[in-house]
Amino acid sequence: MKLKIIFFIPVIIAVAIGVALPLYISGDILWIFEIGIIIILFALFLLYRKIVIPISALKTGMSLLYAQDFASRLRPVGQRDADDIVSVFNNMMEQLKNERIQVREQNHFLDLLIKASPMGIVVFDYDSRIMNFNKSAANMFDGSLAKGLYIRDIECELAHEIAMLSRKDEKTVRLADNRILKCTMLSFVDKGFQRPFLLLETLTDEVMKAERAAYGKVIRVISHEVNNTLAGVIPVFDTVSALSSDDMLRETACACSERCASLSRFIKSYADVVKVPEPILVDCNLNNLVLSLHTFLESLAVKRNICIKLDLSATDTIVKADPVLMEQVIVNVVKNSIESIGSDGEITIAVSKSPLMLEITDNGAGISKDASSHLFAPFFSTKKGSQGIGLTLVAEILRNHHCRFRLATSPDDGLTRFSINF
Fold first, then answer.
1. Are residues 270 and 222 in contact, defined by beta-carbon separation less than 8 angstroms?
2. Distance from C-alpha of 53 to C-alpha of 76, rounded to nearest angstrom
């Protein structure tokens, strides 16, 4: 714009001189001056066409680039060389516009993909602070994720497990609630710099299926061999016990027969884990279910001077569950609590409606950090002489009910809680 104003100043001066000359000059000399002024004006017009208009177009183009207005275009100026530049500029702007649209579409697609992904994704800034995350990641961290925090600052079991992960590291984590997660720290290039992000993949179902298939096959082979052997041995001992006149031999035969029967029951308990029935879901009132078991549970605990307390919901808590299988879960968990306490303790069975949860709390010896991630693994037990199948059975039943569950000892009050979320 300034260039045009500067250019039009000599034009205005030339026109003013041409208008004023007749007042001071006459005759042939006047015509000579007038023709000279016309030639000057024509030269200025050509200069305007050749230089000012192309330069103005280029300045307009620079302004469009600066404002990132890729939708606007330059008009041809009527000169071949300048119009070639305008054509190249317009093509460049068209490509930039298409690339911007493509990037926006890809970013929008990636945003939707990240939000809908069942995999947890946490994106960090250049200083490794949390910048963004999807809903799956928030659930995996039990809702404790927040923008601007470092992973190490989050009070969560998963955060503690992966706080020391560096780029390109991979770790499989088994949590106290029986979740198994594959955690991978990766990075991508953003504005020329590496930006880290965390990928969380749930492996629980796959690992559980593989474990179930493995120990199921082992149990079936062992059960078949042992039961076939015992089926021939037990009648022999029973016959010896019934027909022998030697008291010592009869007692020995009885003891052997009882040990064989005990071994048979032992093998059967393992086989029961493989044959957990599918739940028959009906409307089940958790308050009534706990009340119906209270007397039986007290009979298990009273011999050890352990008190069973109930903390039931003020209103009915109806869930879709199999009452028979849920009874087995509660009994197994309470038995574990009794064994953990030993004697002189307290167990509380609480039912809440918001959130819908059943929680069994005891003041027993507690669970170590190392053992907490293996509690639901087949054949693992912290108790001497235990078969390690009680919690495996409980976990299988609860997974079939699609429940979230967790067993851990709180570092704050030292109480051990088994929480079941419906």
1. yes
2. 10
What's the rounded Cα separation, in Å, for the pair 172 and 162? Answer: 9
Q: Write out the DSSP string of 133-191.
A: E-HHHHHHTTT---TT--GGGS-SHHHHHHTT--TT-EEEEE-TTS-EEEEEEEEEEET
Taking a C-beta distance cutoff of 8 angstroms, is the pair 185, 167 a contact? yes
For 4-48, how does the pLDDT look when each residue is reduced to its tens digit (9 = 90+)? 566 566 667 766 766 666 666 666 666 666 677 677 767 767 666
Give just the sign of the alpha carbon dihedral 398, 362, 368, 412. Answer: positive
Distance CA(259)–CA(254), nearest Å, equals 9
193-230 pLDDT, tens digit per residue, is 888 899 998 887 676 676 666 666 666 666 766 777 77
Tell me which amino acid residue 133 is.
F
282 in helix, strand or coil? strand
**Cα separations (Å) of 284 from 97, 288, 304, 394?**
60, 8, 31, 18
What is the helix, strand, coil percentage profile of the chain, to 5? Answer: 55, 20, 25
Closest C-alpha to 356, from 395, 318, 405, 394? 318
pLDDT in tens, 287-318: 999 998 888 888 888 888 999 999 988 888 89
DSSP state of 304: G
> How far apart (Å, rounded) are the C-alpha atoms in residues 188 and 211?
35
Confidence (pLDDT) at 360: 93
Can you tell me the distance from the alpha carbon of 14 to that of 30, in angstroms, rounded to the nearest whole number?
Answer: 14
Residue partners of 69: CB distance under 8 A and separation at least 6: none
Least Cα distance to 323 among 358, 375, 275 occurs for: 358
SS3 call for 57? helix
Q: Render pLDDT for 50-88 as a digit per residue (tens, 0 to 9).
A: 666 677 777 777 787 777 777 878 788 777 777 788 888
Q: Are residues 398 and 421 in contact, defined by beta-carbon separation less than 8 angstroms?
A: no
- Strands 404-409 vs 180-190: parallel, antiparallel or unpaired: unpaired
CB 267 within 8 A of CB 223: yes
Residue 220 CB coordination number (10 Å)? 13
Cβ neighbour number for residue 169 with a 10 Å cutoff: 12
User: Residue 65: left if φ>0, alpha if ψ -120 to 50, beta else—which one?
Assistant: alpha
Residue in this structure with the two tokens 């967790």, named with its chain if needed:
406
